[in-house]
Amino acid sequence: MSKEAAQFVFMTCRAGAEGAVKEEVARSEPAWRLSFSRPGFLTFKHAGDRPLDDRQLAERHWTFAHAHGVSLGRVTGEKLEVLAADVWRHDAVAHLADEGGFADIHVWQPAQPTLVEADDEDLVTPLCQEIEAALRMAAPESCGKLRLMLSASKRPTRHNGRVLDIVVLSPGEWWIGSHRAVRRHERWSGGAIHVSLPPHAVSRAYAKMEEALAWSDLPLAAEDECVEIGCAPGGASQALLDRGLFVTGIDPADVDPSVLAHPRFRHLKKRGKDVRRKEFEGVRWLVADMNIAPEATLEETESIVQHPGLAIRGMVITLKFSDWKQAARLPELVARVRGWGYRDVRTRQLTTGGQEVCLIALRRKALRRVGTLSRKRRRRGRVENRTDTPHTSLPGPHY
Ligand SMILES: C[S@@+](CC[C@H](N)C(=O)[O-])C[C@H]1O[C@@H](n2cnc3c(N)ncnc32)[C@H](O)[C@@H]1O
Fold first, then answer.
1. Alpha carbon of 271 to ligand 1 centroid (Å)
2. In what order do the strands lie in the sheet with 246-250?
3. Between 20 and 30 A from 14 (CA), which of 163, 224, 320, 396?
4. Residue whose CA is closest, atom 26 of ligand 1?
5. pLDDT of residue 372
6. Could you say which residues of the chain have pLDDT below 50?
7. Cα 101 from Cα 333, distance rounded (Å)
8. What angle do CA 351, 268, 219 make, to 5 degrees?
9. Does the C-beta of 252 come closer than 6 Å to ligand 1?
């Protein structure tokens, strides 16, 4: 990649979250300068003398950026086929195409703000699919394989593959970038891991839970006990039930009858703080998805996880912001959760989420690995081999 081409970084985010992205970048990279900003899309000029290394960049994480990579410039025009040819003629793209080529093409439109959270759109719109098809057809000989491959929105890019990114700001303005598909979400267009919303799902929170689990690789196992505070109407609980977990849902609001009828689900029709601690004995995972301020969510959660005798191994907490300006408080919120003894805390604005952040907490980072090893062992047909000490006080699963 030419030195000049590798001086800019692009990021895409939920439209409206640009301020949160800028603040996060200012904290982690004070020398970077904002270069260009549109709803859901930003570029920053990187200040260093050396060009950006796309492998190192792929390891970086910004909570509010759905996707990021090296920004290579843009093409503008009216005809889709002409624009596609212009992309391949672009100096930086032609250079990368000759130097190792591209493993895949990701095309997406940044997430637009919606009035109702449940109406989130797909980042890969029909226009994006059309553009992707035109780019594949026009791919040069050095990237000939791209012509034979299916759309990248339908399957993940191979690990570590170099991706040609096209961020569609309008039908006639495409921004070009490139990244390495290292982390799970980097293997999908726009960082939107493909998750399903099955017909029986009672809310879109089903897809949100699926995305949270796919992104974080939390080692949940069938038969584990889980509590969800703020469970109504029950979409996220359904995703956990479908994975074979036992779920206690806590919410003063009504839960959908189909969820109530599930043999592994029980509903405590109360607010979190009114539930007796005894109900949390043996619970391994805690999910919190309440439509209250982030501090109030952590207040409720803290009173449970800090209770003597409970051993909550990991949590999936949704922190809802009534205003994106509240996002500036995220470092304090993360520090508070770490203070409870959770050493592995990660945050991401999920592509299926609204004006909020998903916080994942695990007691120890090693637990991530334990989960992966267990799955591998199970695939090989061995009995699951936990390396941590089982909790002696675990009661049997409830019904
Ligand atoms: C966004 S909805 C949850 C969606 C749900 N997770 C799903 O999968 O369908 C937020 C819920 O939080 C509940 N809630 C708000 N404050 C609560 C509290 N203190 N304790 C328990 N639930 C609470 C509300 O009643 C509401 O049903």
1. 9
2. 265-268, 246-250, 225-229, 285-288, 314-320, 356-362, 344-348
3. 163
4. 230
5. 47
6. 3, 5, 115-120, 369, 371-376, 378-399
7. 42
8. 45
9. yes
Mutate to test the pocket of ligand 1, among 213, 270, 280, 290 (most ligand atoms within 8 A of CB): 290
Q: Can you give the pLDDT at residue 2?
A: 52
Q: Structure pTM?
A: 0.89
Ligand 1 in reach of 289 Cβ (< 6 A):
yes
Compute the distance from residue 320 Cα to the ligand 1 centre, in Å. Answer: 11
| CA of residue 233 to ligand 1 center, whole Å | 8
Q: Output the pLDDT for position 121.
A: 60
CA torsion through residues 381, 241, 116, 252, sign: negative
The pLDDT value recorded for residue 113 is 58
Query: Is 272 touching ligand 1 by the criterion CB < 6 Å?
Result: yes
For ligand 1, atom 27, name the residue with the nearest CA: 232
Show the domains of the chain with their CATH numbers.
Answer: 5-191 (3.30.2130.30), 205-379 (3.40.50.150)
Structure tokens at 237: 């609980």
Instruction: Please report the pLDDT score of residue 1 as a whole number.
Output: 53
- What pLDDT is attached to residue 309? 87
